[in-house]
Amino acid sequence: MRSCDGAVLVPINTRFRSEDAAYVLAQSDSVALIIAARSGPIDYLGMVLQMLPSLGSTGAQTLELTGLRHIIVLGDDPVPGTIPWSALLAGGTALPDATLRARIDAVDPDATAFITYTSGTTGFPKGVMHCHNIVRNVIDRAYRMAITPADAILMYLPLYHLYGFSEGMLMSMATGARQLIMQSFDADESLRLLAAERATIVDGFDTHFKDLLEAYRRCPCDVSSIRTGILATGMASSIPIAREARSLFGSLLSGYGMSEIGVGAALSAIDSTEEQCVEASGYPAPGYEIKIIEPEMGLEQPPGAAGEILVRGYMLMQGYYRKPKETAKAIDSGGWLHSGDMGLLRSDGHLRFMGRYKDMLKIGGENVDPLEVEAYLLSHPAIKAAAVVGCPDTRLSEVAVAFVLLQANQKITAQEVAEYCRGKIASYKIPRHLFVLEEFPMTGSGKVQKVKLREEARRRLGTI
């Protein structure tokens, strides 16, 4: 995407496949796409050619992607209709300094700088717009965590997520800290790299730290260089992991954030107690306000009472790109973002995140909207109706479980559904289990009772 104030960055989930990626490219009005021709077994150039069959003949345009004008490819072989990465670099080097400075000076710091896509209740990813305030957000957190050029950040979080984007790339740019970037998360390789490079900061979700702890028990190594990091947690199920992680890695902080409000809307401090860092989700960061309301009546809750978490502050998103109705639902007239998360404010002012009011799934740190998965399942000719819920998983926190109603005289298996989805939607979105029903449990108003389906999934899978 491009605005009159400069190009707008739109990171795309590298686990997306053709249909996911095409949606983001079209919805964001992107004009240029930068890809690696291949990364490991993934043929990204092949995916682009699938989305843009006219590439190399009439240009990179289809009916749905008419705005996409430039394809920049990192690869060894030239591709007709695309721009080699080397040519892009050469063009940038040739730009006069005065011209570059004039373009920099013309940028409005309050203009949209990047759009990150997150799944939402509409059933399709929403583009969360942010301006350059993210720079202040990163610098504030760097100061609070005392990050300097002497630090080395172990970064296995995906850079297309706001978490990895801010704590990885932007944190190094803002502080000069060295970045140890991994292509993907592997616990054993992470510990090897940590020890070899003397990393000082490690961030992640409880899922990552659980795997790191297990890898350490298999093969202990020197992790004494780690001095801090953020373990995004707060749910009761994560407390044992957080406590053990702190005993091994040192003064890990806890925090709360989301794409719409930035990383670290709440964050503990290096001198916070272990209990505050393990059983809470941080203290409201400078420039943020947090309150808890009873979601039905909207009444503010006193300390210790659970309700919906509302957040207001300078890092609040500008809105969802080209989705004004969804934006109005998320941000009220007082400027408060309604997170859809359940939590409470403790007597010491710390936030405790307790779970989600919404049906959103959290699979290995990835947000998955069940409505999006259901919409794709309905494109299968044998499936008449679909409902997707989450079921607890010891490693990924949750996995997707699909309940389906079939068309007359049709049969289907979980393996067939997985094959149908593979290559079309991200692998973590693919239902791990499939159950065929004769009918769904319904409410009096005609809505599927997903609470009952979650209970049924746990019963069938033996998790209750």
Show the helix and strand layout.
Blueprint lengths: L1 E2 L2 E2 L10 H10 L4 E5 L7 H8 L18 E5 L8 E2 H9 L3 H9 L8 E5 L7 E5 L2 H13 L6 E4 L6 H14 L2 E4 L5 H11 L3 E2 L1 E2 H13 L9 E5 L6 H11 L1 E8 L3 E6 L6 H6 L3 E2 L3 E6 L13 E7 L5 E2 L3 H7 L6 E9 L5 E6 L4 E3 L2 E3 L1 H8 L5 E11 L3 E10 L7 H8 L11 E4 L13 H12 L3
Parallel strand pairs: 3-4, 4-5, 8-9, 8-10, 11-12, 12-13, 24-25
Antiparallel strand pairs: 1-2, 6-7, 7-18, 13-14, 14-15, 16-17, 17-19, 19-20, 21-22, 23-24
Stretches with pLDDT under 50, minimum 5 residues: 57-63
Report the span from N to C terminus.
47 Å
Main sheet: strand order: 11-12-13-14-15
Count the DSSP helices: 14
CATH homology superfamily of the largest domain: ANL, N-terminal domain
Structural class: alpha/beta
Query: Could you give the count of β-strands?
Result: 25
Report mean pLDDT, rounded to a whole number.
Answer: 90
- The share of residues in extended strands comes to 25-35%
CATH class of the largest domain: Alpha Beta
Helix content: 25-40%
CATH topology of the largest domain: Rossmann fold
Number of domains: 3
Shape: globular
Characterize the largest beta sheet: strand count, sense, and whether it forms a barrel.
5 strands, mixed
CATH architecture of the largest domain: 3-Layer(aba) Sandwich
Radius of gyration, CA atoms, in whole angstroms = 23 Å
